[in-house]
């Protein structure tokens, strides 16, 4: 008999070799029908994998990320199986599960092009194969046998992957029907659970992400255990298109991109810049009680700075290449992170235990080389500005400072209406510690400090191994927007390692030299990503205090342009942001255009308003609000803003 421990601490005994499915069946038939995968000592495996020793076991359903991952990973194999039947001789690259569904990179034979018009037949074939309820059979194979098998099948990309990347003794395949794939898993037990399928898009993708290699066809899809779920998803997808921050950002004239400036390099237009500066001022207001010291550091640094920090070794592939100056052996790098610069700020003079906590903040612009195929509006760019800070503390101050940052992040979420969020503790991968810097004790201390702070704040958290930064664990906040999509925004990290690498010290009470602990934090994450998420969450209808233009003044003809401009000056003097739309257009067109720009209030002015010093008020989405004096309108706007901003102190 072996002991199985469940997440709630309950322990049951089962015969050696029991499977996750059998465990589910022993609990309830309903659970057995709905369970998709099984966690065994932190590793997700198939439900039919035997468990031969005492283990901690979690049963994953659709509601769990691990369950969805197994479901969509199996769906990727189902897509490949369908393509193999529809396009004989097709070659396969990689086919993983992603956040919303799955994709497979393929190379059809003889220049065949797979396009949107082929989606229906691919979906039909996938459903036909799923209905056969084919078992997925896992097999461990030697490297020699794997090379032989995939070479015989003419799978050149799989052969290359095995030959160059995989070690003997680590290779497994999964077979369903007549299709065999090179894969680590995990998967569903069989394909029968896949009831609803949608191929969503097709794109080009270079093999291994290398622009020098051949371009493959990437086919995206999504699947569900019930048709109703797919229907709901398609409705959400249509709503997401309407809320696309790239479309709304263009309509509201917030930001732009220029091919001549470069891919992934956003340009903030005047209205977007206003919005961005208000976000910065909001955060400065929230941080006022904590005595942060704001700095500005250069956008580049000597290569040796990032070698010392470890960023050069661990971010080398994601960074722009070193900049060589005319001086021999002098190299600089575009700044990929702010923390090394802030370590230098700390090190500029001796520090005492009385100086700590030392909180150094910066709206710091950094640069990362994202592959061109992964760029997406403001959410994936090559330069972005972090609302960054690094807090240098004594070990006994870690928990309190960590809790203070949690308070700031939750206040930000409250202000912007992010009510549905989840906290994730991102831990080091215990099976691959080579990816990280620092000793085991530092990691244990920092991971436990995060757990303890979360318990103190009553914050429900999930833990994810392998998601930590290379220098320390972190607490990430995943928020759901108005249509249910998950975004990673605020983050807090505990770091014992960078202070050691930079030989940072403070003089303790007993006059000994100690190394401080460093807390990294960014409540927004980055101004670019936060703005994109906020646009899509609100569909561009920003809070009145934040929106670039609060009021559009619409004269019904050019005769009233002077009154409109004087009105704009009056409102500006009262702290109300107003613009005049004096185009030679009909008033209906002006109203429609300014509705499109999501301006909260419109003031229609004509002969009567000019004569009486009044305005006819329209509200975005609310229609005609009646006539009022300019004084009363200015007071109304300022009262609304004051009510919104009330309670911005923590």
From TrEMBL:
Catalytic activity: tRNA(Thr) + L-threonine + ATP = L-threonyl-tRNA(Thr) + AMP + diphosphate + H(+)
Keyword Oxidoreductase: no
The protein, known as: Threonine--tRNA ligase
GO terms, biological process: threonyl-tRNA aminoacylation
Cellular localization per UniProt: Cytoplasm
Enzyme class: ligase
CDD domains, sorted: TGS_ThrRS (cd01667), ThrRS_anticodon (cd00860), ThrRS_core (cd00771)
Subunit (UniProt): Homodimer.
Cofactors: Zn(2+)
Classification via PANTHER family: THREONINE--TRNA LIGASE, CHLOROPLASTIC_MITOCHONDRIAL 2, THREONINE-TRNA LIGASE
Aminoacyl-transfer RNA synthetases class-II family profile domain boundaries: 244-555
EC number(s) reported in the record: 6.1.1.3
Residues bound to Zn(2+): 339, 390, 520
Gene Ontology molecular-function annotations: ATP binding; metal ion binding; threonine-tRNA ligase activity; tRNA binding
Cellular-component GO terms for this entry: cytoplasm
All residue ranges annotated as the TGS domain in the record: 1-61
Manner of cofactor binding, per the entry note: Binds 1 zinc ion per subunit.
Alphabetized InterPro entries for the sequence: aa-tRNA-synt_IIb, aa-tRNA-synth_II, aa-tRNA-synth_II/BPL/LPL, Anticodon-bd, Anticodon-bd_dom_sf, Beta-grasp_dom_sf, TGS, TGS-like
Record keywords, A-Z: Aminoacyl-tRNA synthetase, ATP-binding, Cytoplasm, Ligase, Metal-binding, Nucleotide-binding, Protein biosynthesis, RNA-binding, tRNA-binding, Zinc
Lineage: superkingdom: Bacteria
Family, as annotated: Belongs to the class-II aminoacyl-tRNA synthetase family.
């Amino acid at each position: 008999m072996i002991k199985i421990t469940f997440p709630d601490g309950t322990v049951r005994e089962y015969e050696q070799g029991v499977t996750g499915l059998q465990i589910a069946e022993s609990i309830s038939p309903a659970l057995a029908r709905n369970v998709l995968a099984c966690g065994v000592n932190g590793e997700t495996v198939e439900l039919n994998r035997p468990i031969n020793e005492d283990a901690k076991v979690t049963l994953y359903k659709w509601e769990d990320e691990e369950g969805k991952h197994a479901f969509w990973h199996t769906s990727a194999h189902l897509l490949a199986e369908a393509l193999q039947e529809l396009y004989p001789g097709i070659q396969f690259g990689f086919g993983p599960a992603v956040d919303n569904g799955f994709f497979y990179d393929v190379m059809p034979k003889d220049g065949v092009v797979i396009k949107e018009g082929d989606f229906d037949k691919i979906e039909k074939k996938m459903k036909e194969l799923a209905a056969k309820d084919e078992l997925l059979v896992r097999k461990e194979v030697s490297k020699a046998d794997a090379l032989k098998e995939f070479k015989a099948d003419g799978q050149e990309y799989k052969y290359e992957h095995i030959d160059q990347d995989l070690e003997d003794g680590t290779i497994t395949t999964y077979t369903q029907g007549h299709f065999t794939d090179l894969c680590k898993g995990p998967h569903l037990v069989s394909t029968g659970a896949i009831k609803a399928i949608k191929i969503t898009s097709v794109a080009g993708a270079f093999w291994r992400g290398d622009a020098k290699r051949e371009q493959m066809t990437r086919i995206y899809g999504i699947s569900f255990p019930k048709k109703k779920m797919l229907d709901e998803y398609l409705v959400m997808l249509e709503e997401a298109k309407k809320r696309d921050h790239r479309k709304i950002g263009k309509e509201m004239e917030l930001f732009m991109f220029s091919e001549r400036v470069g891919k992934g390099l956003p340009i903030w237009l005047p209205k977007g810049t206003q919005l961005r500066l208000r976000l910065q001022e909001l955060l400065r207001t929230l941080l006022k009680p904590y005595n942060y010291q704001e700095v500005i550091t250069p956008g580049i640094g000597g290569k040796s700075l990032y070698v010392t920090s470890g960023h050069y070794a661990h971010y080398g592939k994601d960074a722009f290449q070193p900049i060589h100056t005319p001086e021999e052996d002098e190299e600089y790098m575009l700044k990929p992170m702010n923390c090394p610069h802030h370590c230098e700020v700390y090190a500029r003079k001796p520090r005492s235990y009385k100086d700590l906590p030392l909180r150094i903040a910066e709206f710091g612009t950094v640069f990362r080389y994202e592959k061109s195929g992964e760029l997406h509006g403001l959410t994936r760019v090559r330069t972005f500005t972090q609302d960054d800070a690094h807090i240098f503390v004594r070990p006994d101050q870690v928990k309190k400072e960590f809790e203070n940052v949690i308070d700031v992040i939750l206040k930000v979420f409250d202000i912007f209406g992010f009510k549905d969020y989840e906290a994730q503790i991102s831990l080091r991968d215990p099976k691959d510690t080579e990816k990280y810097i620092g000793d085991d004790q530092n990691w244990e201390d920092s991971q436990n400090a995060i757990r303890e702070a979360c318990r103190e704040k009553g914050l429900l958290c999930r833990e994810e191994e392998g998601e930590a930064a290379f220098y320390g664990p972190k607490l990430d906040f995943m928020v759901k927007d108005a249509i249910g999509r998950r975004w990673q925004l605020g983050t807090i990290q505990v770091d014992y390692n960078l202070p050691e690498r930079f030989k940072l010290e403070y003089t303790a009470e007993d006059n000994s030299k100690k190394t401080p602990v460093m807390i990294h934090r960014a409540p927004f994450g980055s101004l670019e990503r936060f703005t994109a998420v906020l646009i899509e969450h609100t569909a561009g209808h920003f809070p009145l205090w934040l929106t670039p233009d609060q009021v559009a003044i619409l004269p019904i003809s050019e005769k009233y342009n002077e009154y409109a401009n004087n009105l704009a000056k009056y409102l500006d003097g009262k702290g109300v942001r107003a613009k005049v739309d004096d185009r030679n257009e009909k008033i209906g067109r002006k109203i429609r255009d300014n509705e499109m720009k999501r301006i909260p209030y419109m003031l229609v002015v004509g002969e009567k308003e000019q004569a009486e010093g009044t305005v006819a008020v329209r509200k975005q989405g609310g229609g005609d609000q009646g006539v009022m004096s300019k004084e009363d309108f200015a007071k109304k706007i300022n009262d609304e803003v004051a009510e919104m901003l009330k309670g911005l102190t923590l």
